[in-house]
Amino acid sequence: MRLCGRAAAVRRRVLCLWLLLLGFALVTLALSDLFNRDRDHSHQNPAPPRRPLQRIPSAPDLEVIVDSWDPALELGVDVAPLKSLQEDQLLFVPSTQGTKNPTQRKGTYKVILPGVIKGTTAPPARTHEEIGKQVRLHLEDKEKDDELSAVQKYGFNEVLSERISVQRRLPEARHPECLGEQYSESLPSASVVICFHEEAWSTLLRTVHSVLDTAPKQYLQEVLLVDDLSQHGHLKSVLSEYVSHLEGVRLIRSNKRLGVGGCRSLGAARAAGEVLVFMDSHCECEKGWLEPLLERVAQDRTRVVSPIMDVIHWQTFQYNATQWPVRGVFDWRLDFSWESNPQLQEKDPDSAVQAMRSPALGGGVVVIDRHFFQSVGGYDPGMLLWGAEQIELSIRVWSCGGSMEVVPCSRVAHVDHHHLPYVFPDQEGLQRNKIRIADTWMDAYRKIFYRRDTLAHFIRQSESPNITERLRLKRSLGCRNFHWYLTTVYPQLYIPQDRPALSGELYNVGTGSCADLPRGQGLQGGVMNVAPCSGTGSQHCDLNSDSEVRWGPMGALCLDAEGEKVVVTPCPKHKPSSSSSSSSSSRLQWKFIKLSGQLVHQQSQLCVEAVKEGGLSQSSQGEANTRTSTGRLLLRPCTHHPRQQWHFEQLVAPKGA
Hints:
Blueprint: H1 2-44, E1 65-66, E2 110-111, H2 128-154, H3 158-161, E3 190-196, H4 201-214, E4 220-227, H5 237-243, E5 249-253, H6 259-270, E6 275-279, E7 283-285, H7 290-299, E8 303-312, E9 319-320, E10 326-330, E11 336-340, H8 342-347, E12 356-357, E13 365-369, H9 370-375, H10 389-399, E14 403-415, H11 427-441, H12 446-452, H13 454-462, H14 468-476, H15 482-489, E15 503-508, E16 513-516, E17 526-527, E18 529-531, E19 540-543, E20 549-551, E21 557-562, E22 565-570, H16 583-586, E23 590-593, E24 598-601, E25 606-612, E26 631-636, E27 646-649
Parallel strand pairs: 3-4, 3-6, 4-5, 8-14
Antiparallel strand pairs: 1-2, 6-13, 7-14, 8-9, 10-11, 12-14, 15-16, 15-19, 15-27, 16-18, 17-22, 18-26, 19-20, 20-21, 21-22, 23-24, 24-25, 25-26
């Protein structure tokens, strides 16, 4: 009897266990069916997404995105039923191979920690405060990792960008007189061409909506989005669907990689507007930006114009207005920069609303008549991917009958990039673009470029660019030479003398290093030091016949003395007179004694010495230095010590490029 009772008890327990397992399977099947119906319903009624669908890791982990943290949800315990979440509060997409890790979304979305993996035991019960604290720490760590990954990928804080509305409005930064400007009622129509390659979703859409929200419809013919062979998933079908809901926006896709110039040329060939507006894919437009640009082009169809390019910080996405007046320039390494000259407005208050002639324009926003763009040769099709194409276009426009201006009553903000991790991927490609510019447009002055860019020099030694078509275009258009450009358009650019044995890297015998200016000092100068010789031409010095030691690829900074320290300051705009008694002018006079290798400051009669870093470090003096320096340049009584012995090393022979 006892044995029969025990057997019956075992059978009852086994039966109960099977019933429990069957019940669990039925509940799981019901929830799965409910979820699939919800998902099918959402697919039947799609709405234009604000951003690409987020990929969620597949089993064994599962992440559910809800609108807020519920303290009743404990780690290791089943989450709230799916039916309790509205469609706009739930986003679940099975992961696919090659998709990126999920990031915390903006708005009401937050990420809950993964649930318990099947086969593991639940953690011990904890208080709601402990659970909430762990989740907050997890989200903070994840957010930091996501931001770092986004900066490395895009060059800016894409995680923060996604939290900002795609239709945010910038603060008013125009001069008050601009607000009362009247423009013609018959302005030409404009096609805005926005090329992109692997652009972040948020910045691309913010650019598009910014144009749509600020450009008057009577002037805006269309917005052309040109995809330069992007591979990111969010720029495929999701973008196509989104654009299909935007009136006046067309999406064009290239089947091969074109680069900036080729991509913009493709957009120009498909454009219907009278005026082309080439715009980067990470811009935001101020109200009233388009009309003053169209007005200037309508008055002269050979005029190429740009707005004031304001700055959106790469990390905070804060808007920073650029101080007017400003114009585009480049140096002898063919690197572009914006140059500000606030003193000009102080001398001429009327210049606050007057367009300024500019030797060059940046590539952020360029506005040009469509027919003039085609007749002057468009973008050089021989340019590779990205880099220096705006300088080539600028020199060609000026030399071949056009002009360039910055229009102060038009403002467009541009996201700057964090350049430390955001490095140009093909440095040699950039140099080849510069070689095309030098050989096509700079005539004999190209030798100055090659002495300051040795990588380009050595590439040019082994290969020659095919510029036959561009030279033919240059002749057919009757373009002027580069000497005309330097004397008429850009007379402010110092033309180096590059005398033998008096130009090149200033090499110190005692330290085996070269005179150097720490990065980030800017055009206002800073304290000189010695650092490892770069061999790239970026440390180029030029001792000219005016006894000035000109520093850098633009030659706009002169060696100066500040107490015992050797510094660089902006060079005078006019040549110093031999009879001048100005102390500031005499501080800039130097003499090089070839026999001893001493560089003598003429006013103090002291010699430049490379002093090793010791008790007085640069950091203790509060001086910025981002290079690894081996010492500072100081003025000391002249001796025959090796650290006072210098010579100019010319990396490229003076007689040719």
